[in-house]
Amino acid sequence: MADSRERIRGPSRDGREFLTSPRHVLRRLMLLSEGRQYREAAGVVGRLGPSVLRSVISELPIDLLLEALPHSVYLLESFYSRLNTVNPVPKPDVPTEAVMWQLVRLFANPHESGLRQRCSKLSQALGRFEPSLKVTLRERRKSLDNTVQGLGRHGLTADQNGQLICLHIALKSELQRHIEVYKQAVHKLEELSALTINQNPALSSHQRLLGISYADIQQRLIDNKTLLTILDKPALKQLPLLIENLTQRVQNDKEVLCAVGQIKRTDPQANFEKRPAAGLLMNFSRGCDVILNLMGPDDIIPPRGSVSEKGKVGTDGSSNSSFSDGYHSDDSATHNSEESSDLVNSFKKLYTQSRTETLEALDHLPQLKQSHSLKEKILFSIIVLSFRSTHSLRERKVVEVRRTLCCILESSDEKTLSLDRAVRAHLYDTIDTFPLGDVERQVSNQVLSTLHEYPCLETCTPLVHYISVCVRLAWKMINQKVPYYLDNDFNLGNYEHY
After folding, report:
1. Dihedral sign, Cα of residue 146, residue 267, residue 139, residue 294
2. Measuring CA to CA, which residue among 305, 320, 381, 317 is closest to residue 343?
């Protein structure tokens, strides 16, 4: 009877007879993928049970699907959605991070307008399957943004007279000054009296030193004071600052090369030799941001020190919650509403009034009459340079106070941090009166040195006034109790392209 029932029932005709065999499923998926029938393949995956799904996904060549993105997005999304649904324990070992970086690569390069919508479900499925990916994306985005900021810190530096010059020229001048002073000091050491430069250890004992006469003490004081006068000159104290600047530049460039190396491993086909490094890093930072947004909100606490997205001011002077342009705060605390409103209005006035007036003044310069894009670019670059220069000045002042009070520069103990807070509080209290002439000259020199073929800019009074207004406003914004910083999600390009 059993055999008879089997013959009467016959094979299933609903197309599911192969779904219990991982080998048949895998063969079917490979055939559909080779024919680019990813929607049909996704339908097959959506009907797999936990055990078959685990076996298939361990054997499936995910690398081929990654190369086929964005066309294979439906099949990958089906796999991760099915994994989230059946929730197998333990989780199968799937290359989730490789899929994520491939998506970042897609959005870091020029792409069609519908790509965001096509990849949204896959991104959400990835975020649910592996929540730690969001933390990885945030850290990489922050690292890329900081690296781009470091690229902008290779400009001019101040010498002992406050003039802005190239760092290497400043180092050369400073070293030559040290050489001359040290030669004088060595010559003076050879002329010291026998009492002062006594090489006999027996004569340097405590008892012998207590027996020195008044005249000998007077001669020793004269010798030591003369030597101190030669060595202890304010001009010689510039070298440690220059060396620290050089050290920071070396570290910044190391971080740039490391970041580019990571991108090379993610996107081997990218043209790294001819593309500006900053543009490359900004594009991948934007790709990370897009995937983060597509993954949606979560309950993961961001890593300590991550950039908050509150307190932003758009480039049109209006408040907004987007992370794509404008300025943002580095703290999640709430602004004093009146103070924040004044800053927003000040920036809006700068962008809509001062910028417009300066643009009209540039229109009257014969050399720039037809260069409309260049004029817009100059004015926006001044805003960028103002924020970078004032931020650098603020950090330098904190370091100078630490150094003056003999604090360890890398210290993070509570007393040192309390000192830092006191310095920042003082800078906040004096934001309207703090002298910023050096910063204004630095911004002006950076613009003029880049656009040296337009000497008319040097005598443009409205441009000089615009630089002054930008620097003062930037100084106010970065010295708030909840500071504002410039968002890096834009590309300035090159002046010469216009």
Report:
1. positive
2. 317
